């Protein structure tokens, strides 16, 4: 009998260190017998990469919040149809850097667009699909934002992918609070990782959560 697919999503504010942990997460899940792929939102497909270039470019300061939301959802619809759902149906483990919770946190709680409307879009686009595990890398907004700006400067990428880092601290605090609200509402799906630590310590905590998750899944 083929193993069912597993969908793991990584969430957190800018500078939370999600991307740093992706490779280790893939290695761990592969050690548990899964064939894994990693992806991200926005930009997990060829079309998505073009949408990402619009969404994250710091020159696009006039992008309206509703247009921003709909671009994220268009990216997600393409991502699900062309990558995520086929991989899960093939029994793979999909590790995705950001997913629908990011939209709720950023465009819902921080941009203050209608949560009911966002939930309606998600119901239509996700069609019942929910991540099996969402790892929320949490830390104070001022620390995450400082890290993110430093990273962009070091990569000389402030123009192409710095639009959200240019938002003020109040915005990023709203994003963080939105994430924590979502995690409190779905404790069975979310696992919170203390991201205000060195990468190796963050990984140790992450690994413990993954081990607990896979053990429960194997028992089920």
From TrEMBL:
Domain Thymidylate kinase-like: 10-201
One example of a Gene Ontology biological process annotation: dUDP biosynthetic process
GO CC, one annotated term: cytosol
SUPFAM superfamilies: P-loop containing nucleoside triphosphate hydrolases (SSF52540)
EC number(s) given by UniProt: 2.7.4.9
Keyword vocabulary terms for this entry: ATP-binding, Kinase, Nucleotide biosynthesis, Nucleotide-binding, Transferase
UniProt enzyme class: transferase
GO molecular function: ATP binding; dTMP kinase activity
Spans through the membrane: none
Binding-site residues for ATP, renumbered to this chain: 12-19
Catalytic activity, as annotated: dTMP + ATP = dTDP + ADP
NCBIfam families, sorted: DTMP_kinase (TIGR00041)
Family stated for the protein in its record: Belongs to the thymidylate kinase family.
Functional summary from the UniProt entry: Phosphorylation of dTMP to form dTDP in both de novo and salvage pathways of dTTP synthesis.
This protein's name: Thymidylate kinase
Gene that encodes it: tmk
């Amino acid at each position: 009998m083929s193993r069912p697919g597993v969908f793991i999503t990584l969430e957190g504010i800018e500078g939370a260190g999600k991307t740093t942990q992706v490779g280790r997460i893939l290695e761990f899940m592969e050690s548990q017998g899964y064939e894994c792929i990693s992806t991200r939102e926005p930009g997990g497909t060829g079309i998505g990469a073009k949408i990402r270039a619009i969404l994250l470019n710091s020159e696009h300061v006039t992008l309206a919040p509703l247009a921003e939301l709909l671009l994220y959802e268009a990216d997600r619809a393409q991502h699900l149809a062309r990558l995520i759902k086929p991989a899960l149906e093939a029994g793979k483990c999909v590790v995705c850097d950001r997913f629908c919770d990011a939209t709720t946190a950023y465009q819902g709680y921080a941009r203050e667009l209608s949560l009911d409307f966002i939930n309606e879009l998600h119901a239509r686009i996700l069609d019942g699909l929910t991540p099996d595990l969402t790892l929320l890398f949490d830390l104070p907004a001022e620390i995450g934002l400082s890290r993110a700006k430093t990273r962009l400067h070091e990569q000389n990428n402030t123009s192409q992918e710095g639009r959200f880092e240019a938002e003020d601290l109040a915005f990023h605090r709203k994003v963080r609070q939105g994430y924590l609200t979502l995690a409190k509402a779905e404790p069975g799906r979310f696992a919170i990782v203390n991201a205000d630590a060195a990468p190796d310590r963050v990984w140790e905590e992450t690994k413990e959560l993954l081990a607990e998750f896979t053990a429960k899944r194997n028992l089920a």
